Known about the structure:
- The complex is a heterotrimer of chains A (248), B (446) and C (483).
- Chain A is an alpha/beta fold.
- Chain A has helices at residues 40-48, 72-77, 95-109, 117-130, 136-139, 148-162, 178-191, 231-239, and strands at residues 2-11, 14-24, 29-33, 53-62, 65-66, 80-83, 90-94, 141-142, 166-170, 197-202, 215-220, 223-228.
- In chain A, the strands form three sheets. Chain A has a six-stranded mixed β-sheet with strand order 6-9-10-3-11-12, sandwiched between helices. Chain A has a four-stranded antiparallel β-sheet with strand order 2-1-4-5. Chain A has a two-stranded antiparallel ribbon with strand order 7-8.
- Chain A starts with a strand and ends in a 9-residue tail after the last helix.
- Chain B has two domains: 4-387, no CATH class; 388-446.
- Helices cover 22% and strands 37% of the residues of chain B.
- In chain B, strands 2-1-5-8-10-12-14-16-18-20 form a ten-stranded mixed β-sheet, with helices on one face.
- Chain C is of the alpha/beta class.
- In chain C, helix 2 (37-46) runs antiparallel to helix 3 and helix 3 packs antiparallel against helix 8.
- Chains in contact: A-C, B-C.
- Chains B and C meet through strand 19 and strand 20 of B and strand 22, strand 23 and strand 24 of C.
Amino acid sequence: MLEIHDLHVSVGGAEILKGLSLNVAAGEVHAVMGPNGSGKSTLSYVLAGRPGYDVTAGTVRYKGRDLLAMAPEERAAAGVFLAFQYPVELPGVSGATFLRTALNAVRKARGEKDLDAMQFLKAVRERLRSLSMTEETLKRALNVGFSGGEKKRNEMLQMALLEPDLAVLDETDSGLDIDALKLVADGVNALRAPGRAMLVITHYQRLLSHIVPDRVHVLARGRIQRSGGKELALELEARGYAEFGHAA
Amino acid sequence: MPSSAMRHERAMGLDLTPPGLSAERFLSEGEPLAGGPAWLAALRQQATLRLRVEGLPANDDEGWRQTPLAALKRFPLGGRAAAVATPASSLLRAEERAARLVFRNGALQPAAGDMAALPAGVTLASLAELWRAEPARLAGRLGRLSATEGLPFAQLNLSLAADGYALLIDDGVRLERPVEIVFAGDGEAAWHPRVLIALGRDSTAAVLECHVGRGAYLANGVSELLLAAGARLGYCRVQDEAPAALHLHAGMAELAGGARLDSVVLSLGGGLARNEWRVRLAGEGAEVRLDEVFALRGRQQGETISVIEHLAPHTGSAQVAKGVLDGHARKVFQGKIAVASGAAKAAGSQLNKTLLLSRTAEVASKPELEINCDDVQCSHGAAVGALDEDQLFYLRSRGVPLLQAQALLVDGFLDQVVETVALPTVAAALRARIAAWLAEREGNGT
Amino acid sequence: MALDAGTVAAVDALAERYKYGFVTDIEQETAPKGLNEDIIRFISAKKAEPEWLLAWRLKAYRHWLEMRDPKWARVKHPPIDFQDAYYYAAPKTKEGPKSLDEVDPELLRTYEKLGIPLHEHEILAGVAVDAVFDSVSVATTFKKKLEEVGVIFCAISEAVQKHPELVRRYLGTVVPYSDNFYATLNSAVFTDGSFVYLPKGVRCPMELSTYFRINAAKTGQFERTLIIADAGAHVSYLEGCTAPMRDENQLHAAVVELVALDDAEIKYSTVQNWYPGDAEGRGGIYNFVTKRGACRGRHSKISWTQVETGSAITWKYPSCILQGEGSSGAFYSIAIVNNRQQADTGTKMLHIGRNTRSTIVSKGISAGRGQNTYRGLVRMQGGAENARNHTRCDSLLIGGACGAHTVPYIESKNPTARVEHEATTARIGEDQLFYCRQRGLDEEQAVSLIVNGFCKEVLQELPMEFAVEAQKLVALSLEGSVG
């Protein structure tokens, strides 16, 4: 599903990713772990197409297509979803308006019909329940004045609605207490499906005890330094990232 | 902007200034000082000509809408009074300052100065002395900013300035303690003090200017501040002129890349006191802080007219003007932040807050943003009102008399500006002067 | 900086998208070109006006000859040749229609095309419309139903005939004939407009609305609207405007006067969509308008809501004179400039009475090479005990070639009065845009969503039917502003 080959990325002239390669097949959940400053967020932003990230070399293919040539909204329509580490506030834009606009934009790009207000509400209500969220959330301006946990849950709600094929979760665990973490993990696990790939980016192992990955990669100094099974996460938890040239 | 059209009409012979008040009258009552280099004479001539052609401002000039121009006639427009040798008070103790210069009625008082402790690389001198002895050090600097700005009284200053001071700091030199300059007036006279502060690359200096006096006089000053890359200047002016004095001042600054100007004006004196500012943030990363504290009473009118131009990327400006008005005092604030296209990532903020302590005080505030670049973060705010009734009541219910309660709250309000002054000695001087103003108010029982 | 480059390119490539730019082919009757006392007599005679009104017009005209056009606004345009325009243009009809059946079908089709059906069976439920076509009112709907409750809603020329005492009592009392250059010109040559009178205690049973259409070439539109709400009356009034696309600039210099007596409330909403000119700034309406309301009665209320998306140049400052004790004024504004549009708009809140209140919310959006200025005055007079004002002014910039300027004037002469002003200027957030795009919105949708959020406070002040329209208009006005 996702094939990253020898990816070099610079931000503001400084090279952050220095030849990163990674393959994720459909149905798999991969974790990318690494110390602060290793390029984890850069990887997630490049996959989503955030402006300001210069790809100087390498390729990214998604479902066989050249992902880097696609606009952010084309990627979203093609099924790429990024759960932001810091979800953005949209003053004056209610959660409901935003969700419906996004959902219908993606549906349109996929050749599906717009959902009317009733269908939309029905679809949202189901997901709200499973995330223990209230409809009140939808009336508020998106992410404005939300707590860290509320923001992250809101990201999970959007992911559940947009039903992506490739979900990239950027430090989704940061700022969450254990109950919220569990809730988010349940949301993610509910979306695990044979046709869907996930890339879970995290600094800590704790999220991975709730979302058990098929593969674990260690990202440090701009490259994947080591890959292994889920036990690698536990090993890192015990030994830190020191051997990869970073303090934990 | 009506002013250019008005200027044009005035050039056509339609003078809109109040009768009896003309540029000619000011010019004829002043005596330009002979001497100095040829380039200075040429600059002076240009300024005179320009003033004659463009004339004095009129009330339909946007920047002068709120000024009682006819009242200018009350003040002496020219003449020179003999200096009386009374000792000038000082806001800083000798050990707190790097040097001191004293001017009386515009003329230097060498005996009252104290220049012993100046380190190498620092020149602090009378301008008149410098343009006679070492004019090359002033060439290209003196008049560089004021000559191009269309400020009529700055032209008058250039035309008639007899003295003032220059502070020149060499590259990399750090002057740790502030230089103190006292301008004292005590006569029916007019003077046009001129200031040039030029800081070399990465140099640092601080200046505390104190303007005091007795009687009725006109002090029409111009300061040009030139900051080379990375230079830092702290510029504090205590404007404590006599209640019958007319104080006009134009501060013009140009900041190269990474330079920083921290300016604060404490505005207490003058029958009519007007502060014009023109700040050009010309180099990338240049930053200015242009603060003011004002406290006016009686029939005083205070005016602050500022234009901060962001001309380069990553430039920053912050302006806070806070003050109190008592009696029949009137305050005019017109502050503009202008961001040129190309000044990406500019950040500007502006805040004007006024407390009205009496039923007859008045305020006119016009904070203005002129933004021609999309990549900016700019904001401004203004607020006018009285002291908080709940706070006053709380203090009074604890036994604090009304005037004292007001003084406490006003002090707290003004101190929000003073506390940002970097040099503790200067901040202490400002605090002392504000405390004295409040004590006088309490003493008068107004 | 993908946005900036894209913006410039998109603006250059911007196609005509103004869908109201058609011309109605209809036989016109015009006054001779130019402006002089005879033209004014002609207009007055056409409307069979009483002597006092003609005298008032002539007084205004003579005063106007002594005036110069204002230069203080931040707008640029070549000098206007006031002799090179028609001051009266009207569709040719017999006598003036008595009912809708007599209105020229071509005119009815025009309004249908504009989305304003005038047949009562098709009309937006609960909205009465006065349709003004160039210099005359061509139809007013729901008149009977309004008459039943005593509400007078008609063309001002009709009011001059049928209710001369009301017109004479209030005309020019809020905006005097000598007020300003364009208002004085309007006083001399105004042709038509709406008149509304609400008797004591009447809550208007429906929204009232006027739809202004400029059709004829080289014609100025000078309408005059007068709304009086007697004690305890309530009314919500909407105004919409469009014009054909023409290469020349046309002048629209209207005057609106509102009077609210004790406990009366007037809510005045405008969706201004005059032809803005093309991408190079050719053509478009000069919209130089004076709108002012007097809160004369105790606890009276006037609120202005405007969505200004059209016109080459907008110059208007809907204002409130807060005389009555406890009266309140509000100004909610969205002003959008794109391409080479210029807007200098804002409000004046003059607090005279005790306990008066005012609220100002202004949202300016600049795109393309547009220049947008908020200019506002809040003045607390000496007698404005405990008066309050709060002003919030936000500007949003889209692209690097536009400008956003904020010029508030704040004056206070009363220590118990409180004035608070806040303003911000920033560009549309790149992280917001990216976030929306990551969720599948294209850049234009994302901009439209963010801008609508930015404007929400103002949009929600509009009556329901208008709010939806306005929201679409906001999106439409910004089309092509991002690439």
